[in-house]
TrEMBL record:
<keyword id="KW-0238">DNA-binding</keyword>
<protein>
    <submittedName>
        <fullName>LysR family transcriptional regulator</fullName>
    </submittedName>
</protein>
<dbReference type="InterPro" id="IPR036390">
    <property type="entry name" value="WH_DNA-bd_sf"/>
</dbReference>
<comment type="similarity">
    <text>Belongs to the LysR transcriptional regulatory family.</text>
</comment>
<dbReference type="Pfam" id="PF00126">
    <property type="entry name" value="HTH_1"/>
</dbReference>
<dbReference type="GO" id="GO:0000976">
    <property type="term" value="F:transcription cis-regulatory region binding"/>
</dbReference>
<dbReference type="GO" id="GO:0003700">
    <property type="term" value="F:DNA-binding transcription factor activity"/>
</dbReference>
<dbReference type="InterPro" id="IPR000847">
    <property type="entry name" value="LysR_HTH_N"/>
</dbReference>
<dbReference type="Pfam" id="PF03466">
    <property type="entry name" value="LysR_substrate"/>
</dbReference>
<keyword id="KW-0804">Transcription</keyword>
<dbReference type="InterPro" id="IPR005119">
    <property type="entry name" value="LysR_subst-bd"/>
</dbReference>
<feature type="domain" description="HTH lysR-type">
    <location>
        <begin position="1"/>
        <end position="58"/>
    </location>
</feature>
<keyword id="KW-0805">Transcription regulation</keyword>
<dbReference type="InterPro" id="IPR036388">
    <property type="entry name" value="WH-like_DNA-bd_sf"/>
</dbReference>
Length: 300
């Protein structure tokens, strides 16, 4: 059974004249007859009675027509959805914490405002789970805060992000810069292992981590910022996550000697992923946003 057979059946149901239907569909009469016969064989019932060399819908045919017409109408709408600029569909975006909480919301707002027929679904998790989703196809594009070492994935560097060590104790912060050794016994409040900022922090500090006093490991940056209201605590966070707190004097950067905690944000896709217009437009919008181009999604 195929789409052409169904189209011919509907045409014959409305105009049971094989010669005229054949002309409408640019087919021979025999091709129309063969298509109808094949449809009836596939269904296992006759749809038309042959009366005096004319076709007439029988009860099976009327029932089939009644149920088929709405389905064909819906199919037509679905097919028309993908005509034109192709800015339709569902895009699944995976994002790790800092990007999900402090960068992606504005991008999503502007994207969906510009392309109302497109839907963006989000998966907020750690980079390792995002890599798994990209690999098995459940995520279309990942926005992560660390490099992902996976041969089937392709990463594009978006921007640099230098993590800040911060405290709510202004006097302590202004006495810096400090050697990292001087800070090991402070009460550190960190993200959990596997989080992007934590991976970067662990990579730079290496063996110092064994001697560090980690008081709490938390899954949410908002929770860390609340605990940092205690002046004897310290943390390491992205400036994207603490921009407001730095501006309002609620947190202060603690400068370090001889170390800068630099990481890069990446957009990641599967190497074999089909680059639809929807995917490419979203990707370029993210690039524009992180490149400080405030008109993210341009008119074509």
């Amino acid at each position: 059974m195929n789409l052409r057979q169904l189209e011919l059946f509907i045409s014959l149901a409305k105009n049971p004249n094989i010669s005229q239907v054949a002309k409408e569909h640019y087919l021979t009469q025999s091709a129309v007859s063969v298509a109808l016969k094949g449809l009836e064989q596939d269904l296992g019932v006759q749809l038309f009675d042959r009366l005096n060399r004319r076709l007439a819908l029988n009860p099976h045919g009327r029932t089939f027509l009644r149920q088929l017409e709405p389905a064909m109408h819906n199919l037509g709408q679905v097919l028309r959805t993908f005509e034109g600029d192709n800015m339709t569909g569902v895009l699944v975006v995976g994002a790790s914490s800092t990007i999900a909480d402090y960068i992606l919301p504005q991008i999503l707002f502007e994207f969906e405002d510009r392309y109302p027929h497109a839907t963006v679904e989000t998966v907020f998790t750690n980079p390792h789970d995002i890599a798994d989703g990209l690999e098995d196809g459940t995520i279309d594009i990942g926005l992560v805060e660390t490099e992902i070492d996976n041969p089937v994935l392709e990463a594009t560097r978006l921007c640099q992000d230098e993590l800040f060590v911060v405290s709510s104790d202004e006097i302590f912060a202004k006495k810096g810069p400090y050697d990292i050794e001087e800070l090991l016994q402070k009460k550190w409040i960190l993200r959990e292992p596997g989080a992007g900022s934590r991976d970067t922090f662990d990579a730079y500090l290496g063996s110092y981590m064994d001697r560090m006093r980690i008081t709490l490991q938390m899954h949410h940056t908002v929770s860390i910022k609340r605990v940092l209201q205690n002046s004897d605590t310290i943390s390491c966070l992205s400036p994207f996550a603490i921009q407001r707190e730095l501006e309002y004097g609620e947190l202060f950067r603690v400068h370090l000697k001889n170390i800068r905690l630099i990481r890069h944000f990446h957009a990641v896709v599967h190497k074999d992923k089909y680059r639809s217009k929807l995917l490419n437009t979203f990707f370029h919008g993210v690039e524009a946003y992180l490149g400080t181009d405030r008109q993210i999604f341009h008119e074509e």
